[in-house]
Write a structure and sequence with these properties.
The structure is a single chain. The chain is mainly beta. It folds into 4 domains: 2-90, membrane protein fhac (Ubiquitin-like (UB roll)); 96-172, membrane protein fhac (Ubiquitin-like (UB roll), Roll); 182-250, Ubiquitin-like (UB roll), CATH 3.10.20; 254-572, membrane protein fhac: a member of the omp85/tpsb transporter family (Porin). The chain has helices spanning 2-9, 28-34, 45-61, 110-116, 127-143, 192-199, 209-221, 369-372; strands at residues 14-21, 68-71, 75-76, 82-90, 96-103, 150-159, 164-172, 177-185, 206-207, 225-228, 232-235, 242-250, 254-263, 273-285, 290-300, 303-312, 320-331, 335-347, 352-365, 378-390, 401-415, 429-443, 449-462, 471-473, 487-489, 491-502, 508-520, 531-546, 549-558, 567-572. The strands form 5 sheets. The protein has a 16-stranded antiparallel β-sheet, with no helix packed on it. Strands 8, 9, 10, 11 and 12 form a 5-stranded mixed β-sheet that branches. Strands 1, 2, 3 and 4 form a 4-stranded mixed β-sheet that branches. It is elongated. The N and C termini lie far apart (100 Å).
Length: 576
């Protein structure tokens, strides 16, 4: 007998039946489906309590906030091997939302907030829906330039005979936050000081959303990072303080690339020749942000160009960039042009830059040019000023913003071989002035789509203009669809319509339509008549990010060209 009693006491009690009473909104089957305990299953004291809590939670989710769910009497059989369960429910009234009170909001009205809230008066309160509404409100504040706004549910209470709910929401539109710590990640090669000087933290160390977006643009314009993540604000542990996290990914800043081409002979009496391009670039020298670029290009048999540029950022710790440049161009068999220049950029703000220009240019005619093409042996000292306004959201493939550049230069030219140019309109000394205005407008209407509208106007003025003074049209310059430097102009007005499809952050496909009017005055010395006219070019192309850099390839047709007469233009996009 003792053995039987012992075995019976530790055997599992089975559920004989489950009875539901007092329910109206949910059916018996609905409630039974909410429970883990089932008829014929094993009974558990712990599980019956969990099932009751689940049923109560389901009623709450449907607006029955005062619903009561109790375990009724349990009826065991004579030997306690089975039990009958009773669940007693008191549903009460269904409670709906009667009033939503929002306080502290100034930038966004209550009407606008409630218009996108899925939590509505007259409906039941669902916790997940209200939480999603709060997140959407925070996103809206971030888009309005208030990323540090806070939204708190102050209180949820019953009123009107406990049949309605009042929800109180408190908004804190903190537009600024004070930064007490800065963390920088991902700068394996770049010195931390280079990034810190671009942060430009205000003296009171408070920042807003405009500061964060401008900071990202400043870092991207350094052109030394592959990606720059959106700066993030974080809270310091156990302190009521905030920190700023800057995450970058370094790209390949040192590149060498070259292109080699061969032009076959036009007839049996000529020989073929090589053309090509070699380009070396160090865009982050020793991790300091300094930059060196060198390029050699052989366009045709007798035309070659060599250039060198160096950029020194933040001279003596001030927001001033010093740029040194050298250019030597051997133009056909007519002259050699050498130019030294210095450009100093003063960064007045994130968008506005004023630059001072100074330079020296030397034109040396070849011996053969004196027989069939008159070129002055000259030197020119020039000074100038450039204004730049840039609000583009991305320097690689902008989707919105404006880039405006206007420049003026004043040069004094001296002629050394004036005795060889008598009666051809030359003077020993004269003035050369250049004006230009260039504006690019970017806009976007669809995802991954952008539109560029560009306008340019420029003029070169002097008592006597020569080949080296003119604006050059063709290739990638001004009006595409023509051979490189096919047209020379002293006055030019040009425009561009260019829709783009963005493939990646730095790559896009594009079509283009370029047009413009040019004018070149008569050249009495070389018996060249005045030239002018309206030009247009159209085509398509791609700008592609590669390990070598950003490469642009386009196929363009000019005025009167058939489809097979198009010109393929290939070039590296240099942002020096």
């Amino acid at each position: 007998m003792l053995l039987l009693i012992y075995m019976n006491g530790f055997s599992q009690v089975k559920i004989r039946s489950v009875n539901i009473s007092g329910n109206d909104f949910f059916s018996d089957n609905d409630i039974l489906s909410m429970m883990i305990l089932k008829k014929g299953g094993d009974f558990s004291e712990k599980q019956i309590s969990e099932d009751v809590r689940t049923i109560r939670s389901k009623y709450k989710n449907e607006g029955f906030l005062l619903a009561g769910v109790k375990e009724g009497n349990r009826i065991f059989n004579s030997d306690s091997t089975s039990v009958e369960l009773n669940i007693d429910i008191k549903e009460g009234s269904r409670v709906v939302i009667g009033n939503i009170i929002i306080e502290g909001n100034e930038k966004i009205s209550k009407e606008e907030i409630l218009s996108f809230f899925e939590t509505k008066t007259g409906e039941i309160l669902r916790d997940n829906t209200l939480n999603n509404d709060i997140l959407e409100l925070l996103n809206m504040y971030e888009k309005r330039g208030l990323p540090f706004a806070k939204v708190v549910i102050k209180n949820v209470s019953l009123y009107d005979k406990e049949e309605k709910l009042k929800i109180e929401i408190i908004v804190s539109e903190n537009s600024k936050v004070q930064i007490d710590q800065i963390k920088i990640k991902g700068n394996d090669e770049t010195k931390e000081s280079v990034i810190l000087r671009e942060i430009k933290l205000p003296q009171d160390k408070t920042i807003n959303i405009d500061f964060l977006s401008n900071l990202k643009r400043r870092l991207e314009r350094l052109n030394i990072f592959e990606t720059v993540d959106d700066p993030k604000i974080y809270s310091l542990k156990e302190k009521n303080k905030s920190g700023l996290l800057i995450q970058v990914k370094e790209g390949n800043t040192n590149t060498f690339d070259g292109i080699l081409g061969y032009v076959p002979p036009a007839n049996e009496n000529e020989n073929g020749y090589l053309t090509g391009l070699a380009n070396v670039s160090f865009r982050n020298l020793f991790g300091t942000g300094r930059r060196i670029d060198a390029k050699y290009q052989a366009e045709v048999r007798s035309t070659q160009e060599l250039s060198f540029n160096y950029s020194e950022p933040y001279v003596f710790g001030y927001p001033v960039y010093a740029n040194l440049g050298f250019l030597q161009r051997i133009q056909d068999t007519t002259y050699t042009r050498r130019k030294f220049d210095i450009k100093t950029d003063f960064l007045f703000s994130d968008n506005f830059t004023v630059s001072g220009l100074a330079g020296y240019e030397r034109i040396i005619p070849t011996d053969s040019s004196r027989y069939y093409f008159k070129i002055a042996d000259s030197q020119t000292f020039l000074t100038g000023l450039e204004l730049k306004y840039d609000t583009r959201d991305n320097i690689y493939s902008p989707t919105r913003g404006i880039l405006y550049i206007t420049s003026y230069s004043y040069g004094t030219k001296r002629i050394f071989n004036i005795q060889d140019l008598q009666g051809l309109g030359f003077q020993e000394n004269f003035i050369v002035q250049k004006y230009s205005m260039d504006v690019e407008i970017y806009m976007s209407f669809l995802k991954r789509q952008a539109l560029l509208l560009r306008g340019f106007a420029g003029e070169v003025r002097s008592d006597k203009l020569e080949d080296s003074d003119f604006l050059r049209i063709g290739g990638n310059k001004f009006i595409r669809g023509y051979r490189s430097e096919q047209f020379l102009a002293s006055r030019l007005a040009a425009g561009t319509f260019e829709p783009r499809y963005l493939v990646s952050r730095k790559s896009f496909l594009f079509g283009f339509y370029d047009f413009g009017y040019y004018f070149k005055p008569e050249d009495i010395a070389n018996n060249v008549t005045e030239q002018s006219g309206f030009l247009f070019g159209y085509g398509f192309g791609i700008r592609l990010e590669t390990q070598l850099g950003i490469i642009g390839v386009s196929y363009g047709l000019g005025k009167g060209d058939g489809f097979l007469d198009g010109k393929i233009t290939f070039g590296l996009i240099n942002n020096f």
